[in-house]
Amino acid sequence: MSLRRLLRRHSAPSIEPFDRLHSLYPRPLPMLPPDVNTPPSVRITQDSPLRYRGHDAHEQRAYRDCRQHLLGHILSVMRLCEDFRHHHNLAGVQTAKPSSGSLLFTTPTDTTLTMRLLDERLGQCLRHLDHLRTRVTDSASKVLVTGDVNAGKSSLVNTLLQADIVPTHEQPCTSALCEIVDCMQNGGVEEVHCIPDPAHYDSHYSSTYHPIALRHLPKAMEQGLYDHFRIYVRDHRPPEKSLLKHDLATMTWIDSPGLDADSNKTSAIYAGQDDIDAVVFVVNAQNQLTLSAKTFLQKASMEKKPLFIIVNRFDTIKDKVNCKRKILDQIHQVSPSTYEQAEDRVHFVDLPLDAPPASFATLESNLRTFAVEHRMHTKLLPAKRYLVALLTDMADLARSTHELTIEHHQQALQSLARDTFPFMQLLKAREPVLHQVEVMAEHTLESIQTHALNVLEQALENPRPRFSRPPLFSLWPYAHEYRDALLQAWTEEIEDVEREAMEETKLCVQAIQRLGTEHLGPSPWQDKANLKKSYYKPLTVTLEPVDLLGVWPPRKRTAWAISLGLLACLGVRWVDRSGKFGGGWVSIVSLAGSSLWLGLSEIRTGLESKIFQKCKRAAIKTSLADTHARRVSRISRKILQATGRDLELKIQTAIENKARRRSELENQAHDAQNAGAYYTHFIEVANLVLDQVNAVSTDIPTKAPTRVL
């Protein structure tokens, strides 16, 4: 090996700009006709394996360059996706709902649920990007061979590999996935790994598989203990003709179970092989495309998987033209892209073959071309398509969210502008309103106390007891009843003062509440004027027998004695004069009774006066008027203070709420502004990366024959 080839083999991939990438693809040289007389040393041998060796090296360099660029773009998109996932979860930043048909589309209308599902969808995209990175980095090519039950899939695999590897039988026998790879990946040992758990399989750890010899594979498949087998075999053909090993890549052939009516099983098998590069679908010419086959092909076509359709047992069909037309029409319905390339993608054969004809060589060549030489199409193109779709969806979502953040920013600023004047007015009115409430309360309390004091002092001077029983027989019960009536009259006056004070307090409370409503708007108020009645110790006056002495004043006693003496003289003279009693005594008795009634009335008046004076002295001693005036004023003060504190608390709460609301609006405006700037930058970066991804050429380079010297 020359030094130049050694350096070229061990050199790093080219990182030239994308616009220079096409310079790596030279124009194809014109093919020389076979009859041209050219020296043997420069003649192009069409059957020589070295014919496309120069093209292979050229394609390998182009593939490495494109792969290197695409891997860098995958990492960039992963960073963008992680950054987008982080920002859409930030508080205060609301993400628009993804549109239908997007990779990030979510169906729920609830904002919280949509955000959570979007986060899960972005997580799925990140996992798929990591899977794409692994797949693009992997140089192996995977080909899935599937089809209807008993369509000849295993026979096709054995024919392609020119070895009896997978057991075949007239009845369906393949009930598990069989991966067929070159034994060089197993240290050159030909054997079968029976895999119980494919997700944890590692050929370097014998605990993840059970090795058996190739000859025991049919028995292991019949036992049905394993659903996954990895078969390591040796292909003795040269690399340019082998379908397991190649100069450019290694190949893995996957023989899958046949499709059946169990759609769940079919979907699970296909979903587990989402990293395949091409699909070979085997159809029984007698059955044509079944319903399960159409479903599978439609899904594979939607996944943009390169499809090869092998129509087996075609030789058993009598009307081959009609059969071929029907099958092609069915293919056109389920996979239009495959139908357009039917010449290279659809093959009609009869398996098994003892000696493959030339048509089968064309099939083999086309499979090798797609699986090995067209890795740009089978490996890089799906990754590029996904990157383009994801970048487009994220850019569209970021654009919609950017418009939403602009709208939120404007709404927040407008709300701040509308709230500024009321907030400033409330701040300015706080102290004047509280001062006005204090003045109103003091004026009301002064009025209540003054009125209560005047009313109670007047009641002490001029009591109005409700009592009408005359003292005809006993002064002692009358004295107690009069005392009780007098104290009851004062109590009623106190209660009247309390009611009047409460009414005036209610009026002041209502005025304070109206003042609060004027500045704060309608709001519920606690009824502070309905407090429980304040209890007080009533006035008590104890009467003693000595209080009955001196109830008849001296002046009154003298007048009454003179009246009785005059009455006696008149009576004696009247008797002497008439000499008999008769009706004169009646007049005398009447006059005596009147005098007695007058005397008793004087006694009542004196008794009431003495009891009143005693009660008044007791009231003055206890400061009854001043005490109750201050007590009533104190009750009203508590009510007005509670109302004032309620108003002050409402004002303070309103100020705090408005300040908190303004702070939230400011934060919303700030977050929306930052989010708008972020999404603007995100859109620019996403579009830049999208342009770079689109610049990665996944077109297959034109074959350029090389002269062999």
Detailed description of the structure:
The chain has 709 residues and is an alpha/beta fold. Among the domains are: 140-379, P-loop containing nucleotide triphosphate hydrolases (Rossmann fold, 3-Layer(aba) Sandwich); 420-660, no CATH class. The protein contains 16 helices and nine strands. The protein has helices at 3-10, 53-88, 111-137, 153-161, 217-223, 263-271, 291-302, 320-334, 336-340, 342-345, 358-373, 375-461, 475-520, 554-578, 584-621, 624-695; strands at residues 141-147, 177-182, 191-194, 210-212, 228-233, 251-255, 278-284, 307-312, 346-348. A nine-stranded mixed β-sheet has the order 4-3-5-2-6-1-7-8-9, with helices on both faces. Helix 7 links the parallel strand 7 and strand 8 (307-312). Helix 2 (53-88) packs parallel to helix 12 (375-461) and helix 12 packs antiparallel against helix 13. It is rod-shaped. 27% of the residues are buried. Mean pLDDT is 74; it is low at 1-54 and 704-709.
Throw out a few tags for this protein:
alpha/beta; Rossmann fold; disordered C terminus; 709 residues; 16 helices; disordered N terminus; 9 strands
Mean model confidence by pLDDT: 74
Shape: rod-shaped
Helix content: 55-70%
Order of helix and strand elements from N to C terminus: HHHEHEEEHEEHEHEHHHEHHHHHH
Amino-to-carboxy terminus distance: 16 Å
The count of β-strands is: 9
Largest sheet: 9 strands, mixed
What strand line-up does the widest sheet have?
Answer: 4-3-5-2-6-1-7-8-9
Please count the helical segments: 16
Report the radius of gyration as a whole number of Å: 57 Å
Q: DSSP strand (E) fraction?
A: 5-15%
What low-confidence regions span 5 or more consecutive residues with pLDDT below 50? 1-54, 704-709
Structural class of the helices, strands and pairings?
Answer: alpha/beta
Keywords: Coiled coil, GTP-binding, Hydrolase, Membrane, Nucleotide-binding
Organism: Phycomyces blakesleeanus (strain ATCC 8743b / DSM 1359 / FGSC 10004 / NBRC 33097 / NRRL 1555)
Subcellular location: Membrane
Domain Dynamin-type G: 137-414
